[in-house]
């Protein structure tokens, strides 16, 4: 996520923008740079745990799987890092000192990858317009959230391994997988709704929060 964002951050910096990058104290790539200032916040895990989780996540991508267990294996593998990301987000949103600095800085916009909801929640908390640099959800809900067309008759869903030229049975399967996407989104991100409700002091429906994004930059083809 950061590698995609870094190039844009550097270009914005060269155009004269002052940029602050929120950085957990334990990370892999978010080093010092002349292009931005780092705002560092603490997290309750160490470098070894971070690297071990990423190694497991990467290794499991190459594990053998079948159609019947592919979704379950993918979910369990994603949770290896998503659980860590949630802890990371919780640490940030409960860090009153960091939040105070962000409020006082009076930024013009917040730039985030919304595959993780933390930046989406933070933009709402700070009352800032947000720009999403996005690779996509594992459940295609960016199309529902942004109200862009994504017909199941022509566009294969994640994990089906179908092409855009599907047979009739494949189209039926694609249609059924589409119904599972909302449930998958809930399983992956429901904890963030409680986190958002606590900081925003109101009930939060996460897909509704996503619709407050000002600009979506969808980056599917690398």
How would you characterize the overall build of this protein?
The structure is a single chain. The chain has 222 residues and is mainly α. The protein has one domain. Helices cover 53% and strands 10% of the residues. The protein has eight helices and five strands, in the order H-E-E-H-H-H-E-H-E-H-H-H-E. The chain has helices at 2-14, 47-60, 67-93, 96-105, 118-126, 141-146, 168-200, 206-210, and strands at residues 20-24, 37-41, 110-112, 130-134, 215-218. Strands 3-4-5 form a three-stranded parallel β-sheet, with helices on one face. It has a two-stranded parallel sheet with strand order 1-2. Helix 5 (118-126) links the parallel strand 3 and strand 4. The longest helix has 33 residues, at 168-200. The chain is globular, with a radius of gyration of 19 Å. The two termini are 12 Å apart. The mean pLDDT is 88.
Break the fold down into its secondary structure elements and pairings.
Blueprint: H1 2-14, E1 20-24, E2 37-41, H2 47-60, H3 67-93, H4 96-105, E3 110-112, H5 118-126, E4 130-134, H6 141-146, H7 168-200, H8 206-210, E5 215-218
Parallel strand pairs: 1-2, 3-4, 4-5
Tags for this entry?
UDP-glycosyltransferase activity; transferase; 8 helices; mainly alpha; transmembrane; membrane; 222 residues; globular; transmembrane helix; 5 strands
């Amino acid at each position: 996520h950061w590698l995609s964002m870094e190039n844009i951050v550097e270009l914005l910096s060269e155009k004269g923008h002052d940029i602050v990058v929120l950085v957990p104290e334990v990370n892999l790539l978010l080093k010092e740079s002349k292009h931005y200032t780092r705002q560092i916040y603490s997290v309750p895990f160490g470098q070894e745990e971070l690297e071990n989780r990423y190694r497991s996540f990467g290794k499991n991508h190459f594990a053998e799987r079948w159609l019947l267990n592919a979704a379950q294996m993918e979910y369990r593998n994603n949770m290896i890092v998503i659980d860590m990301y949630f802890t990371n987000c919780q640490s940030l949103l409960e860090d009153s000192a960091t939040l105070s600095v962000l409020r006082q800085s009076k930024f013009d916009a917040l730039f985030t990858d919304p595959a993780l909801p933390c930046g989406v929640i933070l933009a709402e908390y700070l009352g800032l317009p947000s720009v999403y640099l996005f690779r996509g959800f594992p459940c295609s809900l960016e199309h529902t959230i942004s109200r862009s067309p994504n017909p199941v008759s022509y566009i294969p869903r994640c994990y089906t391994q179908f092409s855009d030229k599907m047979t009739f049975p494949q189209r039926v399967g694609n249609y059924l997988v589409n119904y599972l996407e909302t449930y998958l989104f809930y399983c992956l991100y429901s904890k963030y709704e409680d986190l958002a409700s606590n900081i925003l002091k109101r009930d939060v429906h996460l897909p509704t929060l996503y619709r407050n994004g000002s600009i979506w930059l969808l980056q599917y083809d690398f």
